[in-house]
């Protein structure tokens, strides 16, 4: 099997490369340098995650009800224009949003959380709205026809069938959120951005990377975490990853 | 029983008001299936959906079991009407069991009762409860899904069912099977059913009565046989198709046409006797030979009887086929055409000859209704209106 042997060869090559990278980083003392930042990384990563948790949590709490309200038939006339307003909102770069929120909320965690909240709001709202609007009209007619009230239709039919799409929105939004938190350092909210931006200013790549690499790892972990929750929460019949 | 009283729906569109259903008055007696039939856009689906208020009527009333539904709570009304739609609309996030038990749950049944009901429904639609109840709709074939759709509608045992082209999306072979199963269920359940279809053959097969719609108006409401025998106007006639007399073959049973006068010979008779009997009864080409239990065993042809001497038992030919009193004329016609026969012996449950059915009798029976209508049309005072 040529492909399998090729795969095996690549894997072996990768192991060898990792081994030599380890040998080199040990002998040149880079590992020592990184480890020197470990206490900082631990402290800042927790701060980082708090910023994500609070801004992301608030965004979820606001965005999902907002998406639900916009998807109601009585809102149909306003929904599309409101979605456009939110779309325009996202085109503003997060850095500009942070600068704006700093100009009326001052510096520190509060304006940072507000800025991150705004950036995270839209993808979740949009996916909630799209997910609910995308539920097959035949299902809605069947649900109405067997005598479900509009609340029962929402809770038992619409939300369960839109849940996968809603979770996809949360995944995108929170991953972007983790990646955006470093900017919060610029308005004095801390987080791993402290190591990244200070490292850039001091021409210290080790310092910069000891902020950047944990940020990337956090984003991956958050993404995997939400994927796992989605896997467990979305009903089996409408969950493509459990089909 | 479902009664519609001057039910009307007017849609406001940018091009002006469109009357989708125009003063529809209709009555479906308890335990009957009424088919709403017509081309698309004729108002049949709108009429159906006004009964459970998926479409709000502009004016008019709906009575169910004699009760005016106008002031009923919409949810209560719908929970007591089974509803089956063409797209099936099973909830993909729920298991088959959850889908079937949803209306009982809405009605507040206790758990043991609705769980038992789910198994009962599965048995009714001949699907294995243990194999299917825990599965999801996406794991089932289209035909199986629509069976579950019917089971869901029947789960709370509503007296009335509305079905909107329920078997329209199923392939023809499965459709025929499901139609037969459904008719068999209906014989036991005796639901009052309103059923939308655009398929004339389905209407004739399923309907106790058929209501033909055109441009929002009810054109004709009668039994399938009356409809085919006496279409009210040119539209109904063209909608039913040129072969509507043939379609009636499905609806007429042998017992309505059979003549119990049939001469036979027994194996012990001579060919002379057979010839005499053929002449006496004026048979064209043959006479039936029966054994002592009156079961048909052979044919003695006129030619053979005239040219040969001997006993019937030595000179018979095989019987082309027999029909029973319960068969429909379509089967009889098919058998006659394939066997090149102008008559067939008719037998009872024990296989004993009880009469004969001739092509002449069949065409006479089918034609008599047409002639009666023409005669009526010639008399101005009793002319068919329209």
Could you tell me the strand content of chain A as a percent range? under 5%
Strand content of chain B: 15-25%
Q: What gross morphology of chain B would you assign?
A: elongated
* Euclidean distance between termini CA atoms of chain B: 28 Å
Radius of gyration of chain A: 23 Å
Helical coverage of chain B, percent range: 25-40%
Query: So what's the oligomer here?
Result: heterodimer
Average pLDDT value of chain A? 91
Instruction: Please tell me the overall pLDDT of chain B.
Output: 89
Give an overview of the whole structure.
- The complex is a heterodimer of chains A (about 240) and B (about 375).
- Chain A has about 240 residues and is mainly alpha-helical.
- Chain A is built from 10 helices and no strands.
- Chain A has helices at about 1-30, 30-35, 40-70, 75-90, 95-105, 110-135, 135-145, 150-185, 195-200, 205-235.
- In chain A, helix 4 (about 75-90) crosses helix 6 (about 110-135) and helix 7 packs across helix 8 (about 150-185).
- The longest helix of chain A is centred in the C-terminal third of the chain and has 35 residues, at about 150-185.
- Chain A starts with a helix and ends in a 10-residue tail after the last helix.
- The model of chain A has no long low-confidence stretch (mean pLDDT about 90).
- With about 375 residues, chain B is α/β, with parallel strands linked by helices.
- Chain B is about 40% helix and about 25% strand.
- Chain B has helices at about 45-50, 75-80, 95-100, 100-105, 110-125, 130, 140-155, 170-190, 200-205, 225-230, 235-240, 245-250, 255, 270-280, 300-305, 330-340, 360-380; strands at about 1-15, 15-30, 35, 60-65, 65-70, 80-85, 160-165, 190-195, 210-215, 215-220, 265, 285-290, 295-300, 325, 345, 355-360.
- Chain B has a 6-stranded mixed β-sheet with strand order 6-7-8-3-9-10, sandwiched between helices.
- In chain B, strand 7, helix 8 (about 170-190) and strand 8 form a beta-alpha-beta unit.
- The longest helix of chain B has 20 residues, at about 360-380.
- Classes of the chains: A mainly alpha (about 240), B alpha/beta (about 375).
- At the A-B interface, helix 7 and helix 8 of A face helix 2 and helix 4 of B.
């Amino acid at each position: 099997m040529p492909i399998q042997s090729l795969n095996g060869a690549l894997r072996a090559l990768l192991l060898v490369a990792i081994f030599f990278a380890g040998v080199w980083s040990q002998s040149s003392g880079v590992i020592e340098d990184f480890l020197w930042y470990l206490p900082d990384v631990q402290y800042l990563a927790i701060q980082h995650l708090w910023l994500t948790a609070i801004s992301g949590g608030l965004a979820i709490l606001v965005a999902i009800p907002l998406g639900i309200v916009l998807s109601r038939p009585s809102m149909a006339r306003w929904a599309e224009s409101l979605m456009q307003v939110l779309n325009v909102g996202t085109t503003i770069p997060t850095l500009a949003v942070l600068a704006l929120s700093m100009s009326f909320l001052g510096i520190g965690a509060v304006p940072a959380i507000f800025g991150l909240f705004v950036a995270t709001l839209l993808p979740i709202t949009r996916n909630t709205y799209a997910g609910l609007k995308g539920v097959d009209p035949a299902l809605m007619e069947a649900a109405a026809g067997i005598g479900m009230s509009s609340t029962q239709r929402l809770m038992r039919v619409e939300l369960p069938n839109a849940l996968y799409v809603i979770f996809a929105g949360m995944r995108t939004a929170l991953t972007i959120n983790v990646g955006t938190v470093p900017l919060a350092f610029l308005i004095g909210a801390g987080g791993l951005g402290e190591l990244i931006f200070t490292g850039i200013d001091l021409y210290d790549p080790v310092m910069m990377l000891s902020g950047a690499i944990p940020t990337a790892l956090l984003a991956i972990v958050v993404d995997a975490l939400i994927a796992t929750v989605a896997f467990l929460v979305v009903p089996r019949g409408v969950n493509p990853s459990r089909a | 029983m479902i009664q519609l009283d001057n039910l009307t729906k007017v849609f406001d569109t940018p091009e002006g008001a469109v009357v989708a259903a125009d003063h529809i008055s209709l009555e479906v007696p308890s335990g009957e299936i009424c088919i709403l039939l017509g081309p698309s856009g004729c108002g049949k689906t709108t009429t159906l959906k006004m009964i459970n208020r998926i479409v709000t009527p502009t004016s008019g009333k709906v009575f169910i079991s004699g009760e005016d539904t106008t002031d009923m709570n919409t949810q209560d009304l719908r929970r007591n009407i089974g509803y089956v739609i063409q797209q099936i609309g099973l909830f993909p996030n729920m298991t088959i069991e959850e889908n079937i038990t949803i209306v009982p749950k809405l009605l507040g049944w206790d758990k043991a009762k609705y769980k038992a009901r789910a198994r009962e429904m599965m048995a009714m639609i001949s699907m294995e409860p243990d194999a299917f109840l825990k599965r999801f709709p996406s794991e089932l074939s289209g035909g199986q899904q629509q069976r579950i759709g019917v089971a869901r509608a029947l789960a709370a045992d509503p007296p009335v069912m509305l079905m909107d082209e329920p078997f329209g999306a199923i392939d023809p072979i499965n459709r025929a099977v499901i139609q037969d199963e459904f008719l068999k269920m209906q014989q036991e359940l005796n639901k009052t059913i309103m059923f939308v279809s655009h398929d004339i053959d389905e209407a004739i097969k399923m309907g106790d009565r058929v209501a033909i719609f055109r441009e929002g108006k009810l054109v004709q409401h009668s039994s399938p046989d009356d409809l085919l025998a006496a279409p009210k106007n040119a539209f109904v006639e063209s909608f039913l198709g040129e072969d509507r007399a043939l379609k009636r073959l499905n609806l007429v049973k042998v017992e309505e046409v059979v003549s119990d006068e049939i001469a036979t010979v027994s194996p012990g008779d001579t060919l002379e006797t057979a010839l005499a009997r053929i002449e006496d009864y004026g048979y064209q080409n043959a006479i039936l030979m029966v054994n002592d239990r009156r079961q048909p065993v052979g044919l003695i042809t006129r030619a053979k009887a005239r040219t040969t001497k001997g006993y019937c038992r030595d000179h018979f030919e095989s019987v082309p086929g027999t029909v029973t009193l319960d068969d429909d004329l379509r089967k009889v016609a098919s058998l006659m055409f394939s066997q090149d026969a102008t008559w067939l012996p008719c037998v009872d449950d024990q296989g004993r000859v009880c009469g004969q059915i001739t092509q002449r009798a069949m065409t006479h029976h089918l034609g008599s209704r047409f002639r009666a209508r023409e005669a009526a049309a010639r008399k101005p005072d009793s002319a068919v209106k329209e």
